[in-house]
Each structure stands twice: as structure tokens, then as C-alpha cells.
Amino acid sequence: MQIDPWLATGVLVSTAATDAVYVLFNAAVSARRRLPAASWSSVWYLLSAFAVISYTRNWMYVGFAATGSFIGAYLSMTLLHRHPQPHPKSPA
């Protein structure tokens, strides 16, 4: 079993993007913003399709998927931390 470097890079990048979008989706849900949440959700599923289809043919790509997932979540949380979203006011 050989690893195609371009496919491995594609899996890593797509899972990084998928997790970044997932974090943004959760932030939109937490902020109760319906349209952004729905939009991020649809992008999340489109991005995840590439990685799932790619690494299910060869288990060795799962490591690239996990690495990309870590990178995407870490970078998106870093971005959100720099630009905090206003929290919805809780009812009194």
C-alpha cells in the first residue's frame, strides 16, 4: 500500500477546512444565528465528502485526516478567539 502525496495533502487540507467550518458552525449555533449556521452546515457536509471518500479506500489516510482535523479546529478557534462574537443576552 502506497500513499499518494497529493491525495494525502488533499485529505489533510479538506479535513482542516472541514473542522474549521465545523467550529464556525458551532459558533453560529451558539450565537443563535440561523442563516450563518445553516450555511456553515451545508459547507461542512460538502467538505467532509472528499475526505471520507478518499480515506475510506485506504486506512493509512486516516492519520492525515486526523492531522487536518486538529489543524482546522486549532486555527479556527484561534481566529474566533481574536474576534469574539457577542453573546446573546440571557433572559432575566
What this model shows, in words?
This protein starts with a helix and ends in a 10-residue tail after the last helix. α1 runs antiparallel to α2 and α1 packs parallel to α3. With 92 residues, it is mostly helical. The mean pLDDT is 77. It contains three helices and no strands.
Give the percentage of residues in beta strands: under 5%
Give me the strand/helix succession.
HHH
Class of secondary structure makeup: mainly alpha
Strand tally, please?
0
- Count of discrete alpha- or pi-helical segments spanning 4 or more residues: 3
- Rg, nearest Å: 15 Å
Distance between the termini: 61 Å
Average pLDDT score: 77
Largest sheet features? none
Helix coverage percent? over 70%
Number of domains: 1
Q: Could you say which overall geometry the principal axes of the C-alpha atoms support?
A: elongated
pLDDT below 50 for ≥5 consecutive residues: which ranges? none
